[in-house]
Amino acid sequence: MEQINKRPDIKDVDYSPYDFKVSQDYVFVSPKGLNEELVRDISTRKNEPDWMLQLRLKAYNEFISMPLPRWGPSLSDLNFENIIFYAKPMNKQAKSWNELPASIKNTFDRLGLPEAERNFLAGVGAQFESDVVYHKIKKELEEQGVIFSDMDGALREYGDIVKKYYGTVIPIRDNKFAALTYAVWSGGSFVYVPKGVKIEKPLNAYFRLNAPDVGNFERTLIIAEDDSDVHYIEGCTAPVYTTSSLHSGVVEIVVKKNAHVRYTTIQNWSKNVYNLVTQRAQVDENGRMEWIDGNIGSKVTMKYPSIYLRGKGSRGEILSVAYANNQNIDSGGKIYHLAPNTSSKITSKGISKNGGSNVYRGMIYVARGATGVKSAVRCDALILDMKSKSDTYPYLNINENDATTVHEASVGKIGEEQMFYLRSRGLSEAEAQSMIVMGFLEPFTKELPLDFAVEMNRLIDLDMTGAIG
């Protein structure tokens, strides 16, 4: 019987290229834990306007009054008193990679950011711990009025624009972790694309945690004016530690009339990081919003990118992949149809192995009066062993008769028939299994820029090891 069940297994994600630490003399590291004094201190150190301080204090009070989510993965081991909420690595942002301290520069060299900036990016931002340490955009985009800045710098230099849109998409009380990020946010990206400007190459932000117990609480705000187009990509890693850390970011996106925004995430946090984020876009008439969401790392992930289709003819699409290798990944997406003739699509791909738990959790909402809506949801799960599991929790709230909504779901394992067919064509068992899984992921990887698709395939290392499955 043991011989019959013998099968090569998919190799675990090779995290070794990201599991390194560097020594760094920080300018400031807050004591562990959170209180009002720290919230005020963060704002003072950043020399923020009073309106931002007041929002932080309001958010702090909301955070301490709100309970943890009573659904989804257990967060009982998350200890806020053991988290460092602010760690400042440098006094000022570098204008070139060579201006960075050697340890930080070496970090981003190893992660490939300088090379990526030279080869295929329109702009890049690099955050180390709590602050963005490097940010740059191509000169020709600056001349067209595009703003790509860290969020702290945007608050100083473009305060009127920030104040106009900040908090308009995600309210403070949306959830406990959104309130937390409102209170202690630091870093993140600010993107403003003027009317009619189409950015041909992606903008990229990379978030790196280095020291143990440090949390990451970035704020990202993207505004795409009428008829504009932008693709923003974020990546994130951290070394492996025995203690838990926390990433709780907030992303707000405003897509104006006829504009198009694509937001791509390659989430590869180490397996000691709780990844609990809030991401939402609002879309005006004939606008289009796309979330391309890859979740590979973390200890626990709770992430549900949301799209509010406010203008007639607007469109939204969410394409997500979750790879749960002895992890708990609870992800999905939510789309709210609030205007006539809007359309949406959610495609979810989940792989579970080594006792991993993969959950799709999503919502399609159609408001009364939102006629002519078309929406489709497709959830596919692949379970690679008897210890793992996959669950689907789709919610449909349809308040209009003139709407077409479709939901499809499938759960399966690699079939003996598939293996037999490919083996009969001369492939080894390892090659056959790799081909099947690659085909399963193909709808996601084909949407990535080439360099990121190669990286994604490398992260989920589909070379077979010959180990017992």
Determine the strand fraction and express it as a percent band.
25-35%
Assign an overall shape.
Answer: globular
Treating each run of at least 4 consecutive H or I residues as one helix, how many helices? 11
Which structural class matches the secondary elements?
Answer: alpha/beta
Radius of gyration (Å): 22 Å
Largest sheet: 12 strands, mixed
Counted up, domains total: 1
User: Could you give the distance between the termini?
Assistant: 13 Å
The chain-level mean pLDDT equals: 86
> Which stretches are poorly predicted, pLDDT < 50 over at least 5 residues?
1-11, 461-469
Question: What's the total number of strands?
Answer: 24
Specify the helix fraction band. 10-25%
Structural key phrases:
24 strands; alpha/beta; 23% helix; globular; 10-stranded mixed sheet; 12-stranded mixed sheet; 469 residues; disordered N terminus
3D architecture notes:
By secondary structure, the chain is of the alpha/beta class. The chain has one domain. Helices cover 23% and strands 35% of the residues. The chain contains eleven helices and 24 strands. It has helices at 36-45, 50-65, 102-111, 113-120, 139-143, 151-157, 159-165, 176-184, 416-424, 429-445, 450-459; strands at residues 28-29, 87-88, 123-128, 131-137, 147-150, 189-193, 203-208, 219-224, 229-237, 245-247, 250-255, 260-267, 273-276, 278-283, 288-295, 300-303, 306-309, 315-325, 328-337, 343-353, 357-366, 373-383, 389-398, 403-412. Strands 5, 6, 8, 10, 11, 13, 14, 16, 17, 19, 21 and 23 form a twelve-stranded mixed beta sheet that branches. Strands 4-3-7-9-12-15-18-20-22-24 form a ten-stranded mixed beta sheet. A hairpin with a 2-residue loop joins β3 (123-128) and β4. α1 packs antiparallel against α2, α2 (50-65) runs antiparallel to α8 (176-184) and α6 (151-157) crosses α7 (159-165). The protein is globular, with a radius of gyration of 22 Å. Residues 1-11 and 461-469 have low confidence and may be disordered.
